[in-house]
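User: Could you check the structure of this?
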Amino acid sequence: RDIRAGGAAAGTNACIVAAFGDVRTEAAPDIGDVKVTVRIAFVGST
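Assistant: Sure, the predicted structure tokens are below.
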């Protein structure tokens, strides 16, 4: 697996990588590999 996280603090990146490392699909693809890109944004509240 090639799970990468960037843009946040190193501790946050490590947490995100660890959390998504265990994510699995319900059913494997018939053939080949799948590439998925997820963008997560944190917005501060006032």
